[in-house]
Every structure is written in structure tokens, then in C-alpha cells.
Amino acid sequence: MKKRTPMMKRYSLIAVSVLLTVSSIATAEVYKWQDDLCDMKGSFDNKKYSAKQIKNSHLVLDRLTRLNLESFSSPMSVDALDKLSMKDLDVSTEEYKQVKRDTERLDVVPEAKGYKRNLLKTIDAEYEKDRLVILGYLNPSEALKQSPQMCKNYIEPFMQNEAAVQNRWKQFVEEQILETSEYGADELERYRKIATQRYQEEKVSNSAKYARINLITFGFGNCVNDQIYHADSEKVFNNYNQLNKTIFGKSLKMVCEEP
After folding, report:
1. Strand order in 38-45's β-sheet?
2. Is the model's pLDDT at 100 over the cut of 80?
């Protein structure tokens, strides 16, 4: 066997080095995307990630601060209240199942798996709120059993009589007025005038139905919404920037319009 000389070994090492450099360059791939204000691009290692994974990861973070279920809207008018039925719960449930399945199938970069779990929690929370509001209108006794403790006071009057409902509505209007006191006396008086006029008009128009709308949509619904899981928007923004830094490093470039 022919013995390798030091020069042959040197050439061999150079060849390996060149091969590794070419291989490293070949893994770099450019990814471009846009958000509300900026055009962005960066190079990523396509042996670690795929463009589809990056796209899905951005989608997950974007959806953490947006509404994911859109089939149901809490009634805000008598017409909308009159159309409400248990079919709305069926439609909402089907949408929830489909959106959750689609989300579970999203292939994301490893660093975004925690964000995906948070998105699934967000979808669960949105559905729970919609479900409880529908029950509040159509099956208040069941809503009362399942609602957070601090929200039950909006539903309890419906287990009593119409006088109790009307009294709780009037109390709720006053509670809303007093919430504006932190903005000063002028704002308090301004809102008191608006809220009182609206209350009187609704009471004359259809006191029973407007009491339900105010207590369930605005009282109960908002109370439940305050208790369910919501991703912190500032934290999501920071996580989005950190994820991009991890994927693209110093290659990340962005061109933004003036807001």
C-alpha cells in the first residue's frame, strides 16, 4: 500500500474543509414575510427548519392575540336575541373542534411548541366563553352551575323572577357608570347622562329583553371573558422577536412604513 505523504494529507484536509464550507452554505435559505407595517427577510438553516414550519410558527404567534372562533357573537340587539337557539351552540362546537384540530396539526419550529400549546389554551377559552353565554340565555340554570363564582350574580336573578332581573339590570347600569369615576368628575357625569338615557329608552322599548342583553352579554359575558386565559400581548410581541432572532440571527432585515 502506498504511504500518504504529509503533502497528500494536507491536500486531503483542504478538500474536506472546502466540502464542509460548501455544505454549510447550501443549508442557508432565504425566507420573506410581511406583517402590518414591515417587509422582512432572513436566512435560516433549512436542515434545522422548513419554510412551512416558520410560516406556521408566525401564524401561531399572530393568532394568540386575535379572535380564533367567529361563528358566534353575543346578542347586542333584540333581533339578534330572538334568533338565538341551541343551534348556535352546535355550530360553535363544530367550529371549535375544527379549529382545534387544524391547530393541533400545525408543524412548527421546536422553539414555538410552547406558543402552540398556549394557542390551544386560547381556543379552549374562547369556546368556553361562547358556550357559557349561550347557556346563560337558553339554559341559565346550567350556566349558573358551570360559570366562575364571581360571575354567577349576573345569572342568579333569572332563577328568581322578573322583578329580580330588572333590579339587577338597574344595579348593573349604576356599576358601569361608577367605573368611569377614575377618569374624573366631568367624564363621570357625561357617561351618567348617556347611560341613563340609554337605560330609560331600552326599558320603555322592551325591558325584559334588554335586561337579558345587558346582564348576559355585557355583564356575564365580560365577566367570564375576564376569567378565561388570554395571552399577554406584550409578551407575545417579545416572543415573536426572540423567535425570529433564534431562527434568522443577524441575517434578519426589515423595511417598515411609518405608522
Report:
1. 28-34, 38-45, 253-256
2. yes
What is d(CA 113, CA 47) in angstroms, rounded to the nearest whole number? 18
Backbone angles phi, psi at 28, to 5 degrees: -80, 130
- What letter does residue 151 receive in the DSSP assignment? G
Contacts for 181-189: CB closer than 8 Å, 24+ residues apart: none
Give per-residue pLDDT as tens, 151-201.
Answer: 999 999 999 999 999 999 999 999 999 988 888 888 899 999 999 999 999
Dist. CA 97–CA 95, nearest whole Å:
5
Distances in whole angstroms, Cα of residue 12 to Cα of each of 1, 41, 129, 160: 17, 37, 67, 90
Question: How many Å apart are CA 251 and CA 259, to the nearest integer?
Answer: 24
What average pLDDT does the structure give for the chain? 90
Which H, E and C letters describe 178-201, residue by residue? HHHHHHCHHHHHHHHHHHHHHHHH
For residue 131, CA distances in Å to 126, 215, 226 come to 9, 16, 15
Query: Looking only at Cα atoms, what is the longest distance across the chain?
Result: 107
65-97 burial: b if 16+ Cβ within 10 Å, else e: beebbeebebbeebeebeebeeebbeebbebbe
The C-alpha atoms of residue 239 and residue 241 are separated, in whole angstroms, by 5
pLDDT (average), residues 232-244: 96
- DSSP code, position 3: P
